[in-house]
Task: structure prediction
Amino acid sequence: MNYRDKPELRERLAAEYALGTLRGRARERLRSWLRDDAELAREVAAWEARLAPMAQAVEPVTPPARIWAGVERQLGGAAHKPFSFWKTLGLIASGAAAALLAVAVLLPPQRARISPSVEGSYIAVLSDPKTNHPVLVATAERGETVLRVNTLDPAIHVAGRSLELWALPRGGQPKSLGLVSHEKVALKLVATADQSLGDVPALAVSLEPQGGSPTGQPTGPVLYTGPCVKYW
Amino acid sequence: MAPPAQALEALLARSALGDRGAFRALYDATAPKLFGVALRILRREDWAEEVLQECYVSVWRHATEYRASRAAPMTWMTSIVRNRCLDWLRRPNPQPIDDEQLEGLESDNPGPLAELERGRDTAALARCLRGLEARQRQAIALAFFDGLSHAELAKHLREPLGTVKTWVRRGLARLRNCLELQG
Result:
């Protein structure tokens, strides 16, 4: 079947692949074309984007704990998988001149590996140290003055008290970044993210009286902390 | 409510760098919905569990390939799960859906559509689905939610195979036009 110069057929195959009605050998054949036909892959992706939101209508079902246990077992015990950037650095450092290493540091090869929207961003994932469970994600683009904070676990919000987010600068006092008053907040930074977070290795959240700390420094217990990482 | 795409993107990015804690958070935020998707297509809990586990292993291993510019995180993961479910049904002995199960399927999906209308990102899709002829909408919903093939659709809807194929084809074409108009 020559599908390449038949736009209508391509469109239909892409749509039925995404819907799931393309079955059997036809499905496998289309999948093999996707590898070297970027335009067809884009058409399939466009159809997936059109149809996948239908899944939002499916009733969620809490999966049994053994599924996560199985995932962990299959991924092995190591907390970190080998990271090609460091592997690459290791190879360069072992065999080549320091100049090359400098270039590698300036142009880390993982640049292309990270999704564009997080490239050039500061990202902090704050966890509960007792459970090691991530509860908040904070992101800010380098040149912007907005820090977006998303709550992963809505249960952390307590009525009558405020959660205050702090920057913990290297060798300095905590600086308030604002209150995490809703599940999704955009906090205004006093300067660009580069200036506000460039020398901030970690963020923390403390429990404060309603409206925030009266002193300008954390007064309640520090509940969540996490490293603030530069993604570029 | 769907978790915010930006948070999922950040968690995927951290997973790509090997952060198992972020991956766990991604799992917690997305697994119930995706387990629901797999259960509905496979109709057997043990299969759905096996598929979901494989899919998350795959998400971890391929997290570096995720590109936010190409797909929203939930779209990317939903497609992984649905594709794996459909592959699963193709195994040599997957016990195809039997007649009794076919009878038991809800023939229309007012519930899910109402759910879609509430979401800001899904309202346009819900409107366009409502704009289809009832049988086109029904065929597309059964294919998407229940993973029915053309042949199973024909059996369930008691219509000739060719007729059902036409409904699906025309329904998809209309859906696309409608979504493009909605911008």
Residues 5 and 188 of chain A are 52 Å apart (CA to CA).
